[in-house]
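Before relying on records like the one below, remember that each one covers exactly one chain. Contacts with other chains, cofactors or solvent are not represented anywhere in the record.
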Amino acid sequence: MSAKKQPFSKKKRLAVFAIITMIGISYAFYNSQINSGFKHSMTINFDSYQNGTVPEGFADGSIDHKFSWMVRAEPSAPSLPNVMQRVPVNDSSSDYHYQLIPNSPTVDTENVTMSFKIVSGSQAKSAGMILRFIDTKHYFVLMADSDKNRLSLCKDTPDFLICNYDKTVTIAPGQWHTLKALISSQGIAAYLDGTIIIRANDHNYLSGQVGMWTKKDTGAYFDDVKVEY
C-alpha cells in the first residue's frame, strides 16, 4: 500500500502563493508595457519658459509659496538650456514639497519619466516623482534618497507617509538620474536609470495627476518630464 501524501504546511503554501503572485505581477507589468498602446503624450522640458520665472499654471499646483519653484538655465541640463529648480527656502511648516504638472491627465494607466539631480540639502537630500495625486494627503511618491542610497515607493495618507517598498540603489548627488513609473491597474513598476527596481501590487489611489517632489530643504533640478497615456 502506498504511503499517504502529506499536505503542504502553511509555510509552504504561503511560499507557493508568493511565487505565483510575483509571476502574475511580473507578467501583468510586462504585458501592460508591451501592449499599452499609449495614444497620447505630453513632454515638458522647460526650455520654452523664461529663465527666473514661474511658468503659468505651475504655481497653482504647488504647496509652497510662489518662488520656491522656478525655471533656471543650467549648463548640465539633459535638454538645454533650462530646468525646473526646487529652491530651498526657510520653511519649517512642511516636511514635503511638490509641484504638479499643469494639465497632467488623471488616468489609471500611464508611463511617466523624468530626469532629476539633487544639488543640496542639510536636512535631507531626497527628490522624486508624484504619482496618482488626488489631493495633498492622498498620493504616491517615487522617492530617491541620496543620503540613504534608497529608492522607495511611498503612499501619503492623512496621518503618515508610508514607504512599503524600499530598495538599496546608488543615487549620487550632483549627477543626473532618470526615474520612470509604469502605472497600470495591476500596480506600479518603478525604474531608476533604465533598470526596474520596484514592482508594487498596490491598488490604492487608482488614478491621479503627476508632478515633482522634494523633502525638507532638498535643492534639486528636474527636466524632461514625459507622460504617455
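The CA atoms of residues 17 and 107 lie 30 Å apart.
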